[in-house]
Amino acid sequence: MEELEIVLIDEEKKPIEKGKKKKNKLVITCLVLDILALIGYFITYGPWDYARNLLVTTAMTTMNHKYLARIFYSDATIREIMNANYVLESGDSTDISQITFIENDTGIYESIYEEQILKRDKDDVYKLIPISGNNYKGTLVAIYDASKVELALSKYFGTWGQYVTTITRENDALIGINASAFEDDGWSGNGSKPTGVVIMDGKIVYQGISTGYGGGIIGFTEDNVLMLTKKSASQAIAEGLEDGVEFGPFLIVNGEPSFIKGNGGWGIAPRTAIAQRKDGIVLFLVIDGRRPGHSLGIDMTEMTKILLNYGAYNAANLDGGSSSVLSVKGELYNRPTGSTETGERSSPNAWIVK
Questions:
Q1: pLDDT digits (tens, 9 = 90+) for 20-75
Q2: Residue in 352, 354, 349 with CA at minimum distance from that of residue 163
Q3: pTM of the model
Q4: How confident is the model at residue 3 (pLDDT cuts 50, 70, 90)?
């Protein structure tokens, strides 16, 4: 009889213990959600501007994710934040006479950055330099012969874009990065319609709608000088521009960095930039982003700092986000964030090194 009573008592306790456990789990879950909500609210509306500025500027400079800012803030607040974070460019154009193509590897270097750029084998066409910092990783490419840099179009230019890796392979190029931005309504753009003007071989081959992101025409003259200019395409061509695209902002012009307020108004994201040193060496910079644990990306301030460290005399921002791609010998070298298997998105053109 005693054994029977023990069994009955135990059986009666089990449903009670299970119920308590479920209730405890529910309480803990609700508590965690409440804490997360409070943290989110505090970050979004708390006393520090950094998180607000980062969220708004990052969202508002994307093509299709501006709603992420509008969920939390009014249009007036968004305007206030954007007005407090911006890039103020000088308005000057490149003084092409200041670029002198010289071989200056003396074996004595003023900084680690100069050593990384200049120390190389005599026959090197380019050098890959890993870049890393607080929550970002990427690659700087030093191109020692500027005459080897040119603009290459998608085979289906005007109808369909191609991956930068494909454009690089089809042109037997060593290096490739994304060049023009493109119209991307609903994040469904196929890379067929570049934004702004595209110039090749001294002729306008496409005239799209400008982005309004600052900058102007970015390209190379017949003398292999990187030209940054706010003049018209026809004026740029008259001054010797051979290949060019339109984007921005300009980050450095004639050795002078743009004034950057806050984070520059672009938030943190994957980035691509093109630059040239005073000695003629061309720099491609590609920084990965939107990949926690690998690289979150950088803002305009940090990108300008990197380029200045490596001696950039003229430099401009190119299209970033999921368009940021670096191809080396036809293979994908970085980790882009597009929705395809490789992460690449189709682009209308690419800057390549042959």
A1: 555 555 545 544 444 443 344 444 444 457 677 777 777 777 666 777 778 878 88
A2: 349
A3: 0.82
A4: very low
- How confident is the model at residue 35, as a pLDDT? 43
Which residues have CB under 8 Å from 48's CB, separation 6+? Answer: none
Task: Supply 16's token pair.
Answer: 């009670």
Closest CA to 126 of 158, 104, 102, 148: 148
Residue 4: pLDDT band (50, 70, 90) is very low
* Cα–Cα distance, 189 to 283 (Å, whole number): 28
Q: Which residues contact 268 (CB under 8 A, 6 or more apart)?
A: 54, 58, 289, 296, 297, 298, 299
Q: State pLDDT tens for residues 218-237.
A: 999 999 999 999 999 999 99
Tokens of 136: 């970002």
306 CB-near residues (< 8 Å, 6+ apart): 131, 133, 140, 285, 298
Q: Which amino acid is at 325?
A: V
Return the H-helix or E-strand segment holding 197. Answer: strand 197-200
State how far Cα 295 lies from the chain centre: 12
- Sorted by sequence, the CB contacts under 8 Å of residue 133 that are 6+ apart come out as 298, 302, 306
User: Taking 50 as the threshold, does the pLDDT of residue 298 lie above it?
Assistant: yes
8 Å CB contact between 198 and 178: no
Sign (positive or negative) of CA dihedral 70, 72, 75, 80: negative
Whole-number Å distance between alpha carbons of 332 and 79: 38
Which of 221, 275, 257, 219 has the alpha carbon at shortest distance from 92? 257
For strands 271-277 and 349-353, give the pairing.
unpaired
Tell me if 269 sits within 8 A of 297, measured CB to CB: yes
Give the sign of the dihedral formed by CA 326, CA 331, CA 335, CA 337.
positive
Burial class (CB in 10 A: 0-12, 13-18, 19+), 136: buried
Spatial distance between the Cα atoms of 343 and 332, rounded to a whole number of angstroms: 10
Six-digit token string for 327:
């191809």
